[in-house]
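--- STAGE predict ---
source: upstream dedup step, 1 unique chain passed
mode: sequence only
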Amino acid sequence: MSSIHHHLGESLGRGAWCLRWGMAALVAALMAAPAVHGQNLVKADEVPKSLEDVGIEQRLDAQIPLNLAFRDSTGRDVRLGDYFNGEKPIIVTLNYFTCPMLCELQYQDLVGTLKDMKAKVGEDFEILTISFDPLDRPRAAKLKKDNALDALGDPSASAGWHFLVGTLDNIKPLTESVGFSYRWNEDEQEWAHSAATIVCTPTGRVSRYFSFNNESELVRMSLVEASQGKVGSLFDQLFLWCYHYDPSRGDYAPVARNIMQLGGALTLGVLGLVLGGFWLIEHRRRATRRGAVASGLDSSRGPEG
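--- STAGE serialize ---
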């Protein structure tokens, strides 16, 4: 037994020694890694140089210039005012049609939102997907439009989802008006940019900003609000009266005062219905009683003659 204990102690000792040296080697490797590759590391709170001056600054209620000229996917000359004609709210996305990743993800996300949404493209709202790359041409716009419509599975949306290209003189005022900043990455030979879905009023004023993974109902409510009540039901209007959009959250937050007012109005309405019902029942009961009394008097008098 003592021999077994002796060998067991030696094995445990070797195990502990290996563990200590293994941990020491791991710590040394982790500490040495920044020294070897430190020049390629970026601190968590630092913005990579390629992404400096890239982002989106929310400019709610900003007016999009309606006189800016573009070309659609058929090569036709158009102006933004042709779409912002006061009839329907419009979703604007800023992309470029040779983007290898982010734009494709945004298309997929938007298509998923549209599929789940009750409102329909072309009927209740329209979409402008505008390239910020002045080298994009109508042919590339048509290819992207065809792909997007195939993914959506709704050919009727073609009349309401527009893909536009333009020159730098027209692109720049548009991106600046909505706070969209981007830059050319010479090393990667591609545009560094963010992604945003921008909901606008029928007259071209910025109403809401969304990013990715948005609930379809949230986007639909934003369209209702942007359209100033032209899209949606009475419930939608009551919801928007009780909830206001919070840009910092990208969501609708309750307004306590409005909710209390609505609650008070509903309470008074219910109370009125209850009291009205009691009054109607009592009125009918009294009428029945008067009829019974009158009938009894007539019978007690008997026939005259």
